[in-house]
Amino acid sequence: MPAEKQESKGRYTSFFENINKILVQMAPDPNRDDESVIHAAFSAGEMAELRRMHPEKDEARPPIFWKILCRYGVIGNLSNEQIIKSGEERRWAAVIQGMALTAELCRDVGKDENFGKALGSADENGDSLSKRFDQLMRATPERFIDLLRHMLKLAISKNCAFSWVSLAALILTVDEHKRSQIRKGLTQSFYISQEKKQFADPNGKTASNTQLAKEIDY
């Protein structure tokens, strides 16, 4: 089983299965004729509250935050009335806030377009993007949440559309071995995308293996 899905078993299953649905509810497509989604869409006020949340502060979360967690079984399971503690709450706040910030870009993206792949394809000159991405991937779980907000703002400015599956799993996963596997997947996707972009011809086509070999100084 892929590492990014390990944490989605049990309590998190419903949330991960419905990530794109939640994103659509956060930013409904006006050209999409889906009454069930439109009816469940969050209000402009609720979205503003989610975007303003500060994940790292133990502040009172807006009602819509708790409603999302209840609706998708993260808390309030009828069999045991499960709750979350402060550390887990901060991680969930980072996920929900990030989704709220990027919903319009990410609502229709397939799960193969992960955060690393999308960011690696971004139009950014020099090594700045690589350094910032590397810093994010090497960050401790606590520091990661703070750096993530800045990377999401950069992704938005570059119109990067990505699936939230792997990124949410990285934020929520506590086990360091599992986090390492997710980080490796995102990092590989990032650098593969960067290399493809670097060796693409002016018409947007990726260079062939023979062309790439000619560029390498053995």
Descriptive terms for the model:
single chain, 218 residues, mainly alpha, Peroxidase, domain 1, 13 helices
Question: What's this entry about, in short?
Answer:
With 218 residues, this protein is mainly alpha-helical. It has 13 helices and no strands. It has a single domain (3-201), classed as Orthogonal Bundle (Peroxidase, domain 1), CATH 1.10.520.40.
Account of the 3D structure:
This protein has about 220 residues and is an all-alpha fold. It has one domain (about 5-200): Peroxidase, domain 1, CATH 1.10.520.40. About 60% of the residues lie in helices and about 0% in strands. It has 13 helices and no strands. It has helices at about 5, 15, 20-25, 35-40, 45-50, 65-70, 85-105, 115-120, 130-140, 140-155, 165-170, 175-200, 210-215. The radius of gyration is 19 Å and the shape is globular.
Write out the CATH superfamily name: CRISPR-associated protein Cse2
CATH architecture: Orthogonal Bundle
* Global geometry: globular
What name does the CATH topology carry?
Peroxidase, domain 1
For the sheet with most strands, the description reads: none
The gyration radius over C-alpha positions equals: 19 Å
**Low-confidence spans: pLDDT under 50, at least 5 residues?**
1-9, 206-218
Structural class: mainly alpha
Number of extended strands = 0
The sequence of SSEs as H and E is HHHHHHHHHHHHH
Helicity level? 55-70%
What fraction of residues sit in β-strands?
under 5%
Q: DSSP helix count?
A: 13
Query: Mean pLDDT score, rounded?
Result: 82
Q: How far apart are the termini?
A: 37 Å
The CATH class name reads Mainly Alpha
Q: What number of domains?
A: 1
